Amino acid sequence: MFTKMQAFIPARHLLASVTRSLHSNDQEIKWFQDISLIVLMVTSLTFFLFASPPQTYAATVSHTMAANISCGNLSTGHCYGRQDWFGGTIGSKTDIKVVQLTCNGSCQSTGFLDNEMWLIDGQTSSCFSNMFGNCWVEGGYLYDGYCGFCYFWADVRPVDGNNLNLHYLYPTPNHMSPNRDIGHSMRISIYEQGTHRFEVDFAVQGCSFNCSANATFYSTNNTMVPNDVHIGTELSGVGSNNSNWGAPRADYTNNYWKNGAGWQGQTYGNGPGMFQQSPPYINGTYGSLGGTGGDFYTNCC
Amino acid sequence: MRRIHPLIFLGVVITVLGILFLATSSPSDAQNDSQAAPSSTPSTVQGVAIPLRPTNDPALTVPGARFTCDDAAQWVGSHSVPLAVVSAKPAADICEFITSQQTSVRLKGESPGIPDNALVCYVTFHGRFTVTGAGGKTVTYEKAVEVFDAQIGVLLMVTFIY
After folding, report:
1. CA triple B51-B52-B58, angle to 5 deg
2. Has residue A26 got a pLDDT over 70?
3. ipTM of the assembly?
4. Is B78 on the interface with A (CB under 8 A)?
5. Contact at 8 Å (CB) between A252 and A116?
6. Residue of A164, A179, A201 best to disrupt the B interface, most CBs of B under 10 A
7. Interface test with A, best of B4, B21, B40 (most A CBs within 10 A)
């Protein structure tokens, strides 16, 4: 009991104890041993207090953000965190920051996760009368149980009625992989170029070594007249998140729409603005007239 | 009985508490780190692909192809379909090795995205596949086409045909 009480005496009493040991020949512990112990204790305290607690805190934050995913399956009930701009246009583009998406376990078996841009026609009769209710061309990067972590693009054209075409892009043969581009932005441009032809451009920004090659694809025989642009994250699947789904913050910058006069920076425009199903999440700021289209960012889950 | 010096006792207590603290916190931290780590690594052949045959395999009767139509048909029948819920298992109907350009003609201009003269494996199959569109509506298909790179075996595109 006595020794336990000694263990909790104030520091000045400890110092007094050390001082006594310097003047007492019958003390069992020498003064230099005391000094060594003090150094050891200070070092240990410093390590335990300043090294370990932040790790615990980070883990706590991570678990707090985790959520159960309830976003249908591959065919229905998907969730979105996206920005929508309504209004006639002949094209759109955005720079999407490439971040490491995670899709494991129930994500791969029941869904996928992506960051992308859609150019949509929901107004012409041949489009709003199809079974989807619109035609579109989309492009971005995803993580699913099929391709893995890949770039992709897809389209539904009036010429096909209800047919849907999905294209996966690979290191071979396309020289494209988001793994190579993490930390850079991928500029995705989809715009009418030529008669009834939409060009789909992928161009990584600010990277001169070992990134994906720039690539162009074409959605041909496509008579759609776009009136809607979406950017953001699409999420599909059901299950406990538990790190099966993950998407760090991805910024969408240089957001432009195109008309006959060229590229125009997006503003708030004709609403409805940002839309999120929490997860995925979207936030950001709108651009001003004549600007570069604002800065939006998504994250999940 | 020898007295224990208070500083020795204090040092032992702090050390024991520290070891206990680390022992209880480290495993969960390590687990979280491993969960947060990227699960995908760069690779030359990415995604699921039809297994390739050795170039001298006598079963390879189409010049430039590294697998056969039997391989492709078996692969299609044993795998799901991208971005679709499959309620009737896919089964191959027709398999052909054609050029990328010929594929584009068959699909009303939709190109596999590789050079026109590149060889692809074009597989038409049936089943029941439901997908979601950009507006959230779903469509169920009973016919689709998968186009594979004939030399690498990766799935270049899938077209759901209504």
Report:
1. 125
2. no
3. 0.77
4. no
5. no
6. A164
7. B40
